[in-house]
Specification:
This protein has 384 residues and is α/β, with parallel strands linked by helices. It has one domain (16-380): Phosphatidylinositol (PI) phosphodiesterase (TIM Barrel, Alpha-Beta Barrel), CATH 3.20.20.190. The protein has 13 helices and 13 strands. The strands form three sheets. It has an eight-stranded parallel β-barrel, surrounded by six helices. The chain has a two-stranded antiparallel ribbon with strand order 4-5. The chain starts with 15 loop residues before the first helix and ends with a helix.
């Protein structure tokens, strides 16, 4: 793999010696009678397109972050042209029981010179679909705006726009060859009655059962109760718990650490965790603990748009990454996977000679030193 220069980003500090120890622990293994060990066997590493071909950051100077309208049929099918395993998108249910694809809790438009925002779940499906570009060229939709975390409002403009869509349309119009990671959206500021949450999940499931067929599907949610209830309501599809791993504090302690996330998954029969990549960089040893609990692990976050950070996670044992720069990261993963596969035959020949010894990944000393230096730089700049 060709490793490229990288500018340190906004992540807490960790001693690089800790990561070196973690590499050693994760790749230690016994060699069986067949001459193979866990570290000798090829492992599928998933690449998942975030909101399709990547989230929109209308305030960004990076054109790639506002190339294609996120969470749209256009974005999903564009992502499908690359070597992806899944696309990730956000589902909410309108007040007339229609699952629609939209990330934010509120949708913003301009009326009589003023910005007006409405909660997505308070709209009917027809009202929701009236925002933005329309399917019929002669129709004019309501102008769209977006609010950043600091409250700044930008007009939501992208180079390749598309209309909003429903979950049913996604199943019908998106290429069938890759899976869906369906994030179940609930507002952190609302206390939901269990019966209301169950109703919302059942509405989503009705569409999935009718149109899902044999497509690979993963459900995920930041809301612990939603994840637990979805697991109780069905056993056909795996359910993952979404967590930022402790970078933000919530009243619900289940959301405040990777340790609590593991407890929730094991207690509720969930199949995996989707966590912010910073949580893994702060504590790489958590990968071994999560995988040792027979849970899958996927990460999300802007650092997943850096090929070297993705490669490092692959070496640590992470199962997949949710990314915005779909083309760049999928090509990078394809390349380092190809290099690894070409090296499998030689690795197997050497396996017996390594019995009882440390089975490190096939990295040169220069590559390993670079990764350790990279992580040290990435972790050193704090959120001050």
């Amino acid at each position: 793999m060709a490793l490229k220069a990288f500018v340190a980003s906004d992540v807490p500090y960790m001693d690089p010696a800790a990561l070196s120890f973690c590499f050693a622990q994760l790749f230690r293994g016994e060699v069986g009678d067949d001459g193979k060990s866990v570290s000798d066997l090829p492992r599928k590493f998933m690449v998942i397109g975030h909101r399709g071909c990547g989230m929109n950051m209308v305030q960004s100077s990076d054109r790639r972050m506002k190339s294609i309208k996120e969470n749209s049929i256009l974005s999903f099918n564009a992502a499908g042209k690359f070597l992806l395993d899944f696309i990730e998108f956000d589902v909410q249910v309108t007040k007339d029981d229609c699952p629609v694809i939209f990330h934010d809790n509120y949708i913003l438009t301009e009326e009589k010179g003023a910005i007006v925002e409405k909660r997505v779940t308070d709209l009917t499906s027809a009202e929701f679909l009236s925002y933005g570009p329309q399917k019929k060229p002669e129709d004019v939709g309501k102008p769209l705006f977006r609010k950043t975390k600091d409250g700044t409002i930008f007009e939501w403009k992208v180079e390749n726009d598309d209309s909003f869509c429903t979950l049913e349309e996604v199943f019908q119009k998106v290429e069938h060859s890759f899976g869906f990671n369906i994030e179940l959206k609930f507002d952190d500021n609302i206390v939901y009655k269990e019966e209301d949450m169950i109703h919302t999940l059942q509405v989503v499931l009705k569409v999935v059962y009718e149109y899902g067929k044999d497509r690979a599907i993963i459900f995920s949610s930041f809301h612990p109760d939603a994840a637990q209830l979805m697991r109780k309501l069905q056993t056909t599809y795996p359910v993952f718990f979404l967590t930022n791993g402790g970078s933000k504090t919530y009243k619900d302690i289940r959301r405040n650490s990777l340790e609590e996330a593991v407890k929730l998954c094991l207690a509720s029969g969930l199949q995996g965790i989707v966590c912010e990549v910073k949580a893994i960089l702060r504590n790489p040893g958590a990968v071994k603990q999560i995988k040792g609990s027979s849970l899958s692990l996927i990460t999300y976050g802007q650092l997943n748009n850096v090929a070297e950070v993705v490669y490092m996670q692959h070496m640590l044992g992470v199962d997949g990454v949710i990314v915005d720069l779909v083309q760049e990261i999928s090509e990078s993963v394809s390349e380092f996977t190809r290099v690894e596969e070409e090296g499998q035959e030689e690795k197997l020949k050497e396996a017996k000679q390594r019995q009882g010894t440390l089975c490190m990944p096939h990295l040169s000393q220069d590559e390993l030193a670079f990764l350790l230096k990279l992580v040290s730089k990435v972790m050193h700049k704090t959120t001050t």
